[in-house]
């Protein structure tokens, strides 16, 4: 590097820095955090925790490297009713693959999927569900599966709202992700859903890159096709990232204990316990679905996102219970 | 925020930015990259690749998010002779735990470990090794294991050099990690070693945080002890991150295909293939241990870090073969 070029580089970097600082400050000055949250206790408690986390010298201060926040996905970041979005994918894939599997017309649970009889599908229980997942998630390479998922999300729509599944995310939660990141947090998804089902869209929907998505996995196998190495997805479960599997998944993939956790069901109970058992600060929130009008209202009896034990424990342990109806000004971006 | 405070904040940030830019530029101006590398082909090829990666508008340009670099650990970042450092840990732990296990005095492979007869230990093969690992790596909580590992590294020394194991890292490789990060790469370890053996020291040794360490795992189990949630390490293997397991591990943990890979043995062959099979730019390097004087000299016949197939393929596929003796000016920081 010659001298005048070096000076140019310094000047160039300085100007860039000044522009970055000014444009970075503008929104901070212009906008309160969490605009789609009502001014209730919930919002106040979140902001208080985050402000204490970043206040150097304070008792609640946490170094940036340790500001790990984990979010469940189904029912926490996007809708999980009337059934998990990944189940919608499974149903569509069974239909798409049916011409290659004439035997499915006579074989449960495939038959009922093709007949559109979800009640009958449900009767096949967990065993039937696993069969459906293996038949639709295994047997191709990882690259192929990623492409199938991305393509599906381009057109698939929610059965109740008719909107694209990709617009079924909760605006207040996306604001919360942004707010945490703006305060030096690293945000992760920790979901029972499939890692490779979420990764193709997590960055676009939530600003969460692939390496920050923890979820259930199936086994893959390295193989050479022609002279090209591929990873084949096997129809074998590798890891179920749900319930007690969530703290195990966090430990395995992240290797640090989070200080902030958001969930909405009993499947998030153990990771909420794990997060709030740290010696330092820890914050847990449970999204309670109380809004039949704008979204859904369900808890103890729901087949998807059952919230029973964690509902009782949230009160006992002083976890923030978010009342969707009262705490959220807006739920979906497509609302008027 | 009132107006004068806002202006103060802007000015304060500006000054900080200017200082950061100037101090950030200083070392760039002052120092050539990779100072412990000799001025050979190897260094030139690495620098050329990195410069092309960051050159916006160029054919080799890669966006920062996709600048993923993966490094094997044993024999690539630190010494793996006369045996893996983690095996040194296993041997020491067997000795430390022996008073609790009087039966080990009569039971192989434990007996031979206690007798210090490594040849006899080796005869127990992989089955024996797994037994030793399970007996020393399972049965405690994740927090307890982390503390045991950290404590061990404080005093454990290398059998040949007598130096702490933590000083058995290769200076040229640490410089390479720094150089890549300075150019916007995210650096990962992808090792056959145990994730929870490496994480307690990877940040200190290599600047690689826990969530960027991929390795072999054992199963953990969530449990409540008293009222405190813990993760218990079970004596069961979960995942072996070696050979064809490495691309699978990369896919599982990182979810992106790397563009840079460094290894030193046949255990790294598949991840080198996987990395260089990307459509865009891809760079693979294999560290060849050729320096009996300063470190070790071994390849096709070594029980640890066997380099045979990958040695032949490196030439065929134009992977960079680093000749430790000729390409590295310095290997360890404790050299004169």
UniProtKB/TrEMBL annotation, chains A, B:
Q: What does the record give as cofactor?
A: Mg(2+)
- Record key words, sorted: Amino-acid biosynthesis, Hydrolase, Magnesium, Metal-binding, Serine biosynthesis
Task: Please list the GO biological process terms of this entry.
Answer: L-serine biosynthetic process
Q: Which CDD domains match?
A: HAD_like
The Gene Ontology terms for molecular function here are: L-phosphoserine phosphatase activity; magnesium ion binding
EC number(s) per UniProt?
Answer: 3.1.3.3
Write out the GO cellular component annotations: cytoplasm
Spell out the reaction equation it catalyses: O-phospho-L-serine + H2O = L-serine + phosphate; O-phospho-D-serine + H2O = D-serine + phosphate
Q: Looking at its record, which EC class is this enzyme? A: hydrolase
Q: In which pathway does it act?
A: Amino-acid biosynthesis; L-serine biosynthesis; L-serine from 3-phospho-D-glycerate: step 3/3
Protein name per its UniProtKB record:
phosphoserine phosphatase
């Amino acid at each position: 590097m010659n001298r005048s070029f070096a000076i140019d580089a310094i000047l160039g970097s300085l100007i860039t820095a000044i522009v970055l600082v000014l444009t970075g400050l503008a929104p901070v000055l212009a906008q309160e955090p969490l605009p789609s949250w009502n001014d209730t206790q919930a919002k106040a408690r979140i902001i208080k925790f985050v402000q204490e986390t970043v206040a150097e010298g304070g008792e609640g201060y946490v170094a940036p490297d340790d500001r790990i926040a984990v979010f469940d996905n189904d029912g926490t970041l996007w809708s999980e009713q009337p059934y998990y979005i990944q189940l919608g994918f499974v149903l569509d894939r069974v239909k798409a693959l049916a011409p290659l599997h004439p035997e499915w017309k006579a074989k449960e649970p495939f038959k009922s999927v093709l007949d559109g009889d979800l009640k009958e599908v449900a009767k096949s229980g967990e065993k039937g569900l696993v069969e459906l997942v293996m038949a639709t998630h295994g047997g191709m390479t990882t690259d192929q599966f990623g492409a199938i998922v991305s393509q599906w999300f381009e057109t698939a729509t929610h059965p109740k709202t008719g909107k694209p599944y990709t617009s079924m995310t909760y605006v207040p939660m996306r604001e919360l992700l942004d707010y945490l990141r703006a305060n030096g947090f690293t945000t992760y998804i920790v979901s029972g859903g499939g890692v490779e089902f979420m990764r193709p869209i997590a960055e676009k929907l939530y600003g969460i890159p692939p390496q920050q998505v923890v979820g259930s996995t199936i086994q893959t196998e390295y193989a050479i096709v022609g002279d090209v190495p591929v990873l084949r997805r096997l129809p074998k479960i590798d890891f179920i990232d749900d319930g007690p599997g969530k703290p195990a998944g966090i430990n395995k993939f992240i290797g640090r204990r989070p200080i902030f956790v958001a969930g909405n069901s009993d499947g998030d109970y153990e990771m909420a316990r794990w997060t709030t058992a740290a010696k330092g600060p820890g914050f847990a929130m449970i999204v309670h679905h109380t809004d039949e009008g704008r979204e859904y209202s369900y808890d103890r009896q729901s087949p998807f996102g059952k919230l029973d034990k964690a509902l009782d424990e949230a009160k006992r342990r002083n976890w923030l219970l978010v009342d969707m109806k009262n705490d959220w000004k807006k739920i979906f971006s497509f609302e008027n």
